[in-house]
Structure formats: C-alpha cells, structure tokens
Write a structure and sequence with these properties.
single chain, 149 residues, alpha/beta, D-tyrosyl-trna(Tyr) Deacylase, Chain: A, six-stranded mixed β-sheet, two-stranded antiparallel ribbon
C-alpha cells in the first residue's frame, strides 16, 4: 500500500453529479492522504497504514518543531483513493497500472483505512470511489511525504 500525504490547511473533493458540482468530502487543517492499493495488500496492511498516518509527527509543537501527529494536533484527514500511485512509468510514454489492485479489492481496503482512522478518533472525510474527482487543497509547509507499507 502506498500513500502520498500532504499536510494541509484545508482540502476538499468535488464530483460532478447530474451536471452539478458537489462537494463530497472536506476537511480543515490536517492531512490529505492519497491512497494506492496493490494486489498483495490486505486488512493488516490497511490498518498499519492508517496507524502510520495517524501517528506521523508532521505538525508543529509550541516551539515550531514537527513533534505532533494529526492525533496530537486534533487535525482531520481527507482520504482519496488513488490507483495511479501504482503507475509503472519505466517503459514507453503510457503508464501501466497493472500493479494497482482491481476496484473490488481496493475499495474495501481503502474503507478499512478510513474506518481505522475513525476508530482512533480522527475526523475523516473521503472522496468517492470509482468517480472522477477534483481535489482542492492548500499544502501547508509545504509538507509532502510518500509512504509505502
């Protein structure tokens, strides 16, 4: 499982439904987490990723040092499924997504990441699986990290 995390001041996801733009998820300060899932991922990996997201110390303490997690800071998390994190761009000009899990496998695992974050007491918003989404965010710092579990 891979995630691209961005510390944000705010973020939201919109979709177009019935020819209208609609916000389906939004957060204030926290983390925007783009989550990619591959074939050999399972629930154990999903829980480990959520725990890592929740406890990664990327928020400033009172001295301006990144010593606080999203849990410590009371931040929120926006989770957006992102199969393109498993793009293979080594050959040619067209990325291959063969390493990305099929939606039937990926969706429940992405939901498990969300559920685990909520179990930890974090407010979580999401995009909508299998939907063309627009993600708006303000990267804070800027802080952007890549995780692989």
């Amino acid at each position: 499982m891979r995630a691209l995390l961005q510390r944000v001041t705010d973020a939201n996801v919109t979709i177009i439904e019935d020819n209208e733009r609609r916000v389906v998820g939004e957060i204030g300060a926290g983390i925007c987490a783009f989550v990619g899932i591959t074939d050999d991922d399972d629930e154990v990996v999903a829980v480990r990723l959520a725990d890592k997201i929740a406890n990664l110390r990327i928020f400033d303490d009172d001295d301006g040092v990144m010593n606080r997690s999203v849990l410590d800071s009371g931040g929120e998390v926006l989770v957006v499924s992102q199969f393109t994190l498993y793009a293979d761009t080594r050959k040619g000009r067209r990325p291959s997504y063969i390493d990305a899990a099929r939606p039937e496998q990926a969706e429940p695992l992405c939901e498990r990441v969300v559920d685990r974050l909520r179990e930890l007491g974090i407010t979580v918003a999401t995009g909508r699986f299998r939907t063309d989404m627009t993600v708006d965010l303000r990267n804070d710092g800027p802080i952007t990290l890549s995780l692989e579990i």
